Structures are given as C-alpha cells and as structure tokens.
Amino acid sequence: MGGKLTKADLIRKCVAKTGADRAVMIGDTEHDAKGAMETGVPFIAVSYGFGNPDAMMEYPHIGVANSPMDVLQILKEKRENW
pLDDT per residue over 37-49, tens digit each? Predict the structure, then answer.
C-alpha cells in the first residue's frame, strides 16, 4: 500500500476482511504493539524477530513469547479473556 496505511489500518482491514469476531496481533515491533492497542486487539509480543522486545513492553500485551510454541500456549491460556 505504499506505506500509506498504519499498522492499525492493516489490523482493521484484516479483521473486516475475515469477518472474525476475535483477533489477536502477534508481533515483534512496537509498531505492532501500538497498532493492536489502537484497535483494541490483544497483543502477544514475540522476542524473536526484528524488533526490540523492551520497546514493546511499554504497550498492553497478554503475553511474551520466546518461540512459536509459546504463542500457542499463550493463546490457549488467554482465549477466554479476549
């Protein structure tokens, strides 16, 4: 999209396009965390990837994953709360 959409715009588009009644943002940057916060979507921070894990901790999150299996575990534990 030529950099014209924010992360929040992309999250909204994905949720609208899929018709999902629940969603979670899994990301490795503070842009991901900020987009989730702006849209009210729960956020799982991952410590692997391109971002700075410490920067993401300033934003609301439901967990921090150090591996894809950790993401699955967080989803299982938190699914009833969001």
Answer: 999 999 999 999 8
